[in-house]
Amino acid sequence: MIICHTKSKDGSFKYAKIHVKPQQGIQNYSREEATEIARKNPDYMIQNMFEAIERGDYPVWNVYVQLMSPEEAEKYEWNIFDMNKIWSHKDFPLPQIGRLTMNGNVILRNRCPVFR
Q: b/e per residue, 59-96, with b = 16+ CB within 10 A?
């Protein structure tokens, strides 16, 4: 999540909380599995994504935004910048505003791990 603000020409603004959620869902390894993978190949997750992109299995994230006025922020039950708290989806809806697709790998000479 990212919290920022938008400003209009008239000087008014809204706070925006941006959410990026994977279309693929979230899958976790057990502590034991993660430890073993990290021991065998510390770059496993980077390599996994790199190879998925190479074969055309592009990772996709949906992008959502919540907007809050400064007046609402002043009256809100907690500090809106506390990243451990969630803004109510009932009070501040979460419409989808876009989608991010990672459809290519960036290869920098002598700097990018190449897993071929």
A: eebeebbbebeeeeeeebeeebeeeeeebeeeebeeee
Distance CA(85)–CA(113), nearest Å, equals 36
Domain count, the chain: 1
Please give the torsion angle defined by the CA atoms of residues 27, 38, 103 and 23, in that order, rounded to the nearest 10 degrees.
10
The domain in which residue 45 lies consists of 2-101
Residue 74 is assigned to a structural domain of this protein: yes
Residue 107's pLDDT band, with cuts at 50, 70 and 90, is: confident
Q: Which two tokens stand for residue 58?
A: 């592009």
Q: How confident is the model at residue 10 (pLDDT cuts 50, 70, 90)?
A: confident
In a domain, 25, yes or no: yes
Q: Flag whether 115 is in a domain.
A: no
DSSP for 60-88, written as a single string:
EEEEEEEEE-HHHHHHSSS-TT-TTS---
Q: Which CATH number fits the domain that encloses residue 81?
A: 2.40.180.10
Cα–Cα distance measured from residue 7 to residue 13, given in angstroms and rounded to the nearest whole number: 4
